[in-house]
Amino acid sequence: MKYSQATDYALHAMLHLVSEAPDKPVSVHLLAEKLGVSPTYLSKMLTKLVKAGLIHSVPGANGGYRLRRSQEDISFLDIIHAIEGTASVFECSLNHGSECQIQQVVLDAERQMEEYLRNRKISDITRPS
Predict the structure, then answer these.
(1) Which domain holds residue 83?
(2) Where is the signal peptide (predicted)?
């Protein structure tokens, strides 16, 4: 399974907001420069994070993006779902529905992975170990 490059950028942008500027807005241009990505492309990811309620946009000359929720409340899964959506990564092509044993194994693995990502907060990796 593979997450998109957009998810990679969103996770790194959130890490930057949490570790470098938890209480002040950061411009899309500064974030884009730090990540080495186009501001236009990054802006699309940030818009999804705003819609998910993870960050908010601060208008004005000194505006930008900052956390909307406490960093301890933002999980990896929150960020991934904001970018990728919540659809399952596997669907049985043979239309067996809930009777498909293969689909049940894959869905069980997916649930376990989601539980792990739900319990890992973005702030976990900003703290010294």
Answers:
(1) 5-125
(2) none
CATH number at residue 39: 1.10.10.10
Q: Write phi, then psi, for 61 (nearest 5 degrees).
A: -60, -35
- CB neighbourhood size of 14 (10 A): 26
Which residue in the block uniquely carries the two structure tokens 């596997």? Answer: 90
Nearest 5°: CA angle at 64, between 20 and 74? 55
Query: Which long-range contacts (C-beta less than 8 Å, at least 24 apart) are formed by 7-10?
Result: 7/79, 7/80, 7/83, 7/84, 9/35, 9/37, 9/41, 9/42, 9/45, 10/45, 10/46, 10/48, 10/49, 10/79, 10/82, 10/83
Phi first, then psi, for residue 126 (nearest 5°) are -100, -15
Q: Is residue 127 over pLDDT 70?
A: no
Domain count, the chain: 1
